[in-house]
Write a structure and sequence with these properties.
This protein is α/β, with parallel strands linked by helices. It has ten helices and 14 strands. The structure holds adenosine-5'-triphosphate (ATP).
Length: about 300
């Protein structure tokens, strides 16, 4: 169990984290979600021990990070957002290099490298230079480097950014298999669909503050509103004027509503009175993206990031 208690972190005068309180249960996959600059990486770096100067307390199984740093670091594997590999070396030699940094012996390492290469699905490329790898293969190897010392907590910062669909699938399968082994995973992403699919619990961070958190089903249940999506050549913001929570989404608009059937009726009346015929009209239950918009008033995609493919 990881307890994050009242954590605050500032860079100079800029406050990156404010009074963060979170509990992450053992053996769960915890999704940390928020827009660029929300504070996700800062929190992850605190959990990994890269950032040592902060206020508040982080406890792992009741041992404080401040007083048990080395022992805790040995239990944690960190996959940084930026790929950190030596391009001129082979996959095996990269793993060897990282294993040495973790202080693993030669004999331990040889066995672990073979296991890790199998886990990340790169056993047939172990002797290939990393410079010949696709972005997705590099990401998988980057994850492999964090698994060498067999940590029971794995922290992954945006592990699917810039990967092809095949590697994304391989990363998802890897995460599922780590979960099945009982590992605790902390997974940061701005791809809401991924988080909803993979994670058992979630924390939304916005401007350094936790704005919602809890088990996934509880969070979805707490915000059990619906969302109506409408699209068409004649459907413009002016036509939809007056509908609350109106948001541009893709080629159309979404309207969040607690009373979806009533809102649908109002829409139908409004379209009829304006002689507008929509080409698509869909009703869906609250998804994480809608909940985030509702809580913060912004979409993650407003921040200039792409959606998951
Ligand atoms: N070393 C630093 N010095 C000064 N400010 C920093 C530093 N690192 C982060 N920040 C600032 O702290 C805030 C939180 O940054 P952080 O990287 O934790 O956000 P994030 O949610 O991980 O965003 P991203 O998804 O872009 O990585 C941002 O405003 C960022 O500019």
């Amino acid at each position: 169990m990881i307890h994050i208690q009242n954590v605050k972190k500032s860079y100079g005068t800029h406050c990156a984290l404010q009074d963060v309180e979170l509990t992450i249960a053992k053996g769960t996959c915890f999704g940390l979600v928020g827009p660029n600059g929300a504070g996700k990486s800062t929190l992850m770096k605190i959990l990994v021990g890269i950032l040592e100067e902060y206020e508040g307390e982080v406890l792992l199984d009741n041992a404080t990070f401040h007083h048990n740093r080395l022992a805790i670091k040995r239990r944690i594997g960190y996959v940084p957002q930026d790929i950190c590999l030596e391009e001129t070396l082979t996959a095996r030699d990269n793993l060897l290099l990282f294993g040495r940094l973790y202080g693993l012996s030669k004999s331990q390492l040889s066995k672990r490298i073979t296991e890790v290469l199998r886990k990340i699905g790169l056993e047939d490329r172990e002797k290939s230079s990393v410079s010949t790898f696709s972005g997705g293969m590099k990401r998988r190897l980057n994850i492999g480097c964090a698994l060498l010392h067999d940590p029971d907590i794995i922290i992954l910062d945006e592990p699917t950014v810039g990967v092809d669909p095949q590697s994304r699938r391989a990363i998802f399968e890897l995460i599922h298999s780590l979960k099945n082994e009982g590992k605790t995973l902390i997974y940061s992403s701005h791809y809401m669909e991924e988080v909803e699919q993979l994670c058992d619990a979630i924390g939304f961070i916005d401007q350094g503050k936790v704005v919602e958190h809890g088990p996934m089903q509880e969070v979805l249940g707490r915000h059990h509103h619906s969302s109506i999506y409408v699209e068409g050549k004649q459907v413009t913001a002016e036509v939809l004027q007056g509908f609350p929570s109106l948001k541009e989404q893709g080629a159309g608009f979404s309207i969040v509503s607690d009373e979806p059937l009533e809102t649908l009726e109002q829409l139908a009346r409004s379209f009829a009175s304006q002689a507008v015929l929509p080409e698509r009209l869909e009703l869906s239950q609250a998804r994480l993206e809608d909940i985030f918009i509702r809580l913060t008033g912004t979409s993650l995609r407003d921040t200039g990031m792409e959606g998951a493919s």
